[in-house]
# Entry
Amino acid sequence: MADSEVLKVCIRDSMWTSILFLIVGLLFASSTTSTKAAETAAEVDARAAVVAYFLGGDEPTVEAASWSSEKQLNVGVHYMGGQENNFARYVCSVLRKRGLGAGARVNVVDINTMSLDPKQWEVVGEATCKE
# Structure
């Protein structure tokens, strides 16, 4: 084989190798995106299940529950004048059981202020959930 023919084969093989790497990279990126979307959908379902649990009557202390972000849960209670940090930590334990606890933030809010603008809510207890 002449040097020019060897060079043509090397260039052709190099081009196919580059194309192969590009295809593998695109497939990997696609599968990573799909996995991320599936995890996000699962997290959305888990967050909805937490709200349903707190509003379902099994937890009579809670009168309202809503997520203000992916990591911020607000629960409304009838405030009786005490510090509600222990209750916020309990809410963290519920989140932890459902796989949502790590890094989540819980605010316990006086139910009488939850109908107002969130900036005016009276937060009577809070906790940052740990693993």
